[in-house]
Write a structure and sequence with these properties.
CATH class of the largest domain: Alpha Beta
Helix content: 10-25%
Structural class: alpha/beta
Number of domains: 2
Shape: elongated
Largest sheet: 10 strands, mixed
Strand content: 25-35%
Radius of gyration: 21 Å
CATH architecture of the largest domain: Alpha-Beta Complex
């Protein structure tokens, strides 16, 4: 019988400073990725893994987070919140949610990525190996230099972190921000500000080396959204996935009742937006109620959010316009993120 997990925690308290100035107004979990708030990508992933109950920790812009979830019960999941003041970090934040999580195995995830990894498959491996804590990793030599190496031995035991090594690693990977944890981990966490990778995993590697694992996914995609270049790169890759008719993305759109119309090859348009007389070269995604002036050009790998305005003779290419943004007359946006009236250079790392 397949193992099950019904509870999860999403770490949503962070300031999101690497996405400034966007995150000064919008909580990082709510910044749209492919015109869908990032956290909805995460919630869909968790629901697909069998999760029914989710807790989120709040610190930065908590009212905005609570207001967002008060409007709709996305995915039919049950939501709870914990509040932090001061911010407790990943380790302290999990400990602060112990009352919610301590009765069963749970998934812990960050809120700044998009992936289609099949978590259920790794829950089965986690249980089979009698693990107390497991990280899900990916291998990508082209991106490894951007992230700290996490090392595992031939039996998937976690043996190397950036600040600790207990034996030689057989393979290395990139941590995806997804953990599978048993409630016994609360014995190793403290009610203070700390990072889970600085406290929990070193303690497990030292005292329970046979009970801590890292599992490498080789089947799915995983894209980071934590900083401006990564965010733009992820938008580029997701547009390509949309072009390839990726089923995971199609299922997310269907779950949110988003019905895109492919008005021409590789150009998807949501309701209330007319692209007549606009020069388009896909892949492009255009949100709701977007208005275009005269002689506007939109080039490949561009996402335009809801309620944007592109004035006469403006141009956008390999860029993201976040909701309610506008390009003034004659503006050329390239390798950038438009936030309201501010252009943020963010050359993607494709």
């Amino acid at each position: 019988m397949a193992a099950s997990v019904r509870k999860a925690m999403i770490l949503t308290a962070g300031l999101g400073t690497r996405l400034n100035p966007i995150s000064q107004k919008i909580p990082k979990p709510l910044v749209p990725v492919l015109n869908i708030p990032n956290i909805l990508h995460i919630l869909f992933l968790l629901k697909r893994a069998g999760v029914t109950d989710v807790v989120m920790n709040l610190f930065h812009l908590p009212k905005e987070m609570e207001a967002f979830f008060s409007k709709k019960n996305f995915g039919g999941l049950n939501y709870s919140f914990t509040h932090e003041n001061p911010i407790l970090g990943t380790g302290g934040g999990v400990k602060n949610a112990e009352a919610f999580l301590s009765d069963s195995r749970f998934i812990l995830v960050n809120c700044d990525f998009v992936t289609n990894i099949d978590i259920k498959r790794f829950v089965d491996q986690h249980v089979e190996k009698n693990s107390k804590a497991s990280m899900i990793l990916i291998q990508d030599p082209s991106r490894q230099h951007l992230y700290s190496k996490v090392g595992i031995d031939q039996n998937d035991h976690l043996v190397q972190l950036p600040k600790m090594e207990i034996s030689k690693a057989h393979r290395h990977g990139i941590f995806t921000g997804i953990h599978i944890l048993e409630p016994s981990v609360f014995d190793l966490l403290e009610n203070k500000t700390c990072g889970i990778n600085d406290v929990l995993y070193p303690a497990l590697m030292k005292n329970f080396p046979q009970s801590v694992h890292g599992f490498i996914d080789t089947k799915g995609f995983w894209y980071d959204t934590g900083d401006l270049p990564a965010f733009l790169t992820t938008s580029h890759h997701l547009l390509q996935q949309l072009t390839n008719e990726n089923q995971f993305l199609k299922d997310i759109l269907a779950s949110l009742d988003i019905h895109l119309v492919e008005t021409q090859p590789k150009v998807w348009v949501d309701s209330g937006s007319s692209t007549n007389h606009v020069k388009l070269s896909g892949p492009i995604l255009i949100g709701k109620n977007v208005t275009f002036g005269k002689n506007v050009q939109v080039g490949p790998f561009t996402v335009i959010g809801d309620n944007c305005c592109l004035e006469d003779f403006s141009c956008a290419e390999n860029s993201v316009l976040l909701p309610n943004s506008f390009l003034s007359t004659g503006t050329r946006l390239l390798n950038s993120i438009q936030f309201e009236n501010l252009s943020l250079s963010a050359k993607s790392i494709v």
